[in-house]
């Protein structure tokens, strides 16, 4: 099956992987999008593993408060009962400002608010709330591979009332 520009564009938008990698993955998968995604994920995790020795001295602090509950009218009964501060690191300020890094920070904050891990190690081993087939470590690894830099969760604090 011939891979079209539209196929490449669609998969690139979904995965944020480099264009040529998307093209090669689609060709290797015979045009099967699900198989191409799996191949891209594997490649991203391999790239991420090779970058773990690098210093991740930049990054961002993410803050999140979770609104809980809801009345019969749809308005919240409780507001701001759970909060998270996350120190997410990468190698450069440029990468810290990317959409991929920003989205990763938000997703990890939601994970922490929802699952209340006791440590970074426990967090990394948890099933990702949006996709139980993945662990949080895999989510971070995919972002690292996509971004081309070492990305790591340095620390976090979860507050609840």
Automatic annotation (TrEMBL):
<comment type="function">
    <text>Associates with the EF-Tu.GDP complex and induces the exchange of GDP to GTP. It remains bound to the aminoacyl-tRNA.EF-Tu.GTP complex up to the GTP hydrolysis stage on the ribosome.</text>
</comment>
<keyword id="KW-0648">Protein biosynthesis</keyword>
<dbReference type="GO" id="GO:0003746">
    <property type="term" value="F:translation elongation factor activity"/>
</dbReference>
<protein>
    <recommendedName>
        <fullName>Elongation factor Ts</fullName>
    </recommendedName>
</protein>
<dbReference type="GO" id="GO:0005737">
    <property type="term" value="C:cytoplasm"/>
</dbReference>
<dbReference type="InterPro" id="IPR036402">
    <property type="entry name" value="EF-Ts_dimer_sf"/>
</dbReference>
<feature type="domain" description="Translation elongation factor EFTs/EF1B dimerisation">
    <location>
        <begin position="83"/>
        <end position="159"/>
    </location>
</feature>
<dbReference type="InterPro" id="IPR009060">
    <property type="entry name" value="UBA-like_sf"/>
</dbReference>
<dbReference type="InterPro" id="IPR001816">
    <property type="entry name" value="Transl_elong_EFTs/EF1B"/>
</dbReference>
<dbReference type="Pfam" id="PF00889">
    <property type="entry name" value="EF_TS"/>
</dbReference>
<dbReference type="InterPro" id="IPR014039">
    <property type="entry name" value="Transl_elong_EFTs/EF1B_dimer"/>
</dbReference>
<keyword id="KW-0251">Elongation factor</keyword>
<feature type="region of interest" description="Involved in Mg(2+) ion dislocation from EF-Tu">
    <location>
        <begin position="92"/>
        <end position="95"/>
    </location>
</feature>
<keyword id="KW-0963">Cytoplasm</keyword>
<comment type="similarity">
    <text>Belongs to the EF-Ts family.</text>
</comment>
């Amino acid at each position: 099956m011939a891979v079209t520009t539209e196929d490449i564009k669609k998969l690139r938008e979904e995965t944020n992987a480099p264009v040529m990698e998307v093209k090669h993955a689609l060709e290797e998968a015979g045009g099967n999008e699900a198989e191409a995604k799996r191949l891209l994920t594997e490649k991203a995790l391999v790239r991420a593993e090779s970058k773990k020795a690098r210093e991740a001295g930049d990054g961002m602090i993410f803050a999140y408060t979770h609104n809980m509950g809801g009345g019969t009218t749809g308005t919240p009964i409780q507001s701001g009962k759970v909060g998270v501060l996350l120190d997410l690191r990468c190698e450069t300020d440029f990468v810290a400002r990317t959409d991929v890094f920003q989205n990763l920070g938000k997703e990890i904050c939601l994970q922490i608010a929802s699952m209340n891990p006791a440590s970074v190690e426990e967090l990394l081993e948890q099933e990702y709330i949006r996709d139980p087939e993945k662990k949080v470590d895999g989510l971070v690894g995919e972002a690292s591979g996509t971004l081309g830099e070492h990305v790591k969760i340095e620390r976090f604090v979860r507050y609840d009332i």
